[in-house]
Automatic annotation (TrEMBL):
It holds the Pfam family Cyclin_N. GO terms for biological process: cell division. Residues 1-43, 259-321 are annotated as: Disordered. CDD domains: CYCLIN_AtCycD-like_rpt1 (cd20543). Residues 1-11, 289-302 have a biased composition (Polar residues). It comes from Malus baccata. InterPro entries: Cyclin, Cyclin-like_dom, Cyclin-like_sf, Cyclin_C-dom, Cyclin_N, Cyclins_cyclin-box. Interacts with the CDC2 protein kinase to form a serine/threonine kinase holoenzyme complex also known as maturation promoting factor (MPF). The cyclin subunit imparts substrate specificity to the complex. Keywords: Cell cycle, Cell division, Cyclin. Residues 163-290 form the Cyclin C-terminal domain. This is B-like cyclin.
């Protein structure tokens, strides 16, 4: 059940750092997270379905753009936006939407995923109708969205407490200088990865490690200030080659997209390496543009003023796909 939002201070500007645990507890926690993360990722064939046009890439991007606008307007946490897209991708990776029904199935799925993520993470959850802003083509009645939420939860096997890169970031930055600012910047970078489908091929722990390395701007030994047990853990469980590949994609697609990006580094004069795939180039070039960034550290989208909300239309009797 949703509750009417109240006026509160702006929360979730960045993820808070937890009190430093002992090394054994940290290692055990990270081991559990890494062991669990494959259960919260889209199927391995998901990216290939965009390449063969089984799934409409543009529809995915339109859905993400809308989710991020609403996320910024309501000042949701970065994790809420990331979870929304995680639910969205996991659903599509195992369930096909009607291909000839127009845009309403994607829009309904977007509303349902954002609503579920807000219920999981936000202290004040807007009404379902209050989520449907920024001139949606369809406005769904709450009961329709709730039926779709049940459909999504069933497809996801009720695994809504997803393992995401945000679970790893506090562990990875806790022993580094300026950990609070590093955490906020890394969170922004992680959130921006949801636009580029190539990042779906990397595990959450890999994305988190690559983001910290990108923001730190130098080679970082995550266990430099830890003991041998922690150092051995990273050596054994974190694939350095995958982290390097993910970091390279971030530098090519995300950090160098906008000349004004605060994470952008001076051009060394060398030619950029070849992109990982044509679909990734299309994704990054079309949607990771300068006008999608925000100075709000809790969001990468600048929220425009929403238009007057439409009354529920003929879409109210739509059945969830």
């Amino acid at each position: 059940m949703t509750t009417k939002p109240t006026t509160t201070f702006s929360h979730h500007q960045c993820l808070p750092l937890p009190p430093p645990p002992d090394d054994t507890t940290t290692t055990s926690s990270l081991t559990h997270l890494i062991d669990s993360e494959p259960n919260h990722m889209p199927s391995p064939s998901y990216i290939s379905r965009f390449r063969d046009r089984t799934i409409d890439l543009t529809a995915r991007q339109d859905s993400i753009n809308w989710i991020l606008k609403v996320h910024a307007h309501h000042r949701f946490s970065p994790l809420t936006a990331f979870l929304s897209v995680n639910y969205f991708d996991r659903f599509l990776s195992s369930h096909s939407l009607p291909r000839h029904s127009g845009s309403w199935p994607f829009q309904l799925l977007s509303v349902a995923c954002l609503s579920l993520a807000a219920k999981m993470e936000e202290p004040n959850v807007p009404f379902i109708l209050d989520l449907q802003i920024f001139e949606p083509k369809f406005v769904f009645e709450p009961k329709t969205v709730q039926r779709m939420e049940l459909r999504v939860m069933g497809i996801l096997n009720w695994r809504l407490r997803s393992v995401t890169p945000f679970d790893f970031l506090p562990h990875f930055v806790s022993n580094l200088p300026s950990s609070s600012s590093l955490l906020a910047a890394s969170s922004n970078l992680v959130l921006s990865t949801i636009r580029v489908i190539d990042f779906l091929g990397f595990s959450p722990s890999t994305v988190a490690a690559a983001a910290v390395l990108c923001v730190a701007g130098a080679s970082v030994d995550f266990a430099a200030d830890g003991d041998r047990q922690m150092a051995a853990f990273f050596h054994e469980r974190v694939n350095k080659e995958r982290v390097r590949s993910c970091r390279q994609l971030m530098e090519e697609y995300l950090l160098d997209t906008c000349p004004s990006s605060r994470h952008k580094r001076p051009n060394s004069g060398s030619a950029p390496s070849a992109p990982a795939s044509p679909i990734g180039v299309l994704d990054a070039a079309s949607y990771a543009s300068c006008d999608t960034r925000s100075e709000n550290p809790g969001s990468t989208i600048q929220a425009e003023r929403p238009t007057k909300r439409l009354r529920p239309s003929a879409a109210t009797d739509v059945q969830p796909p």
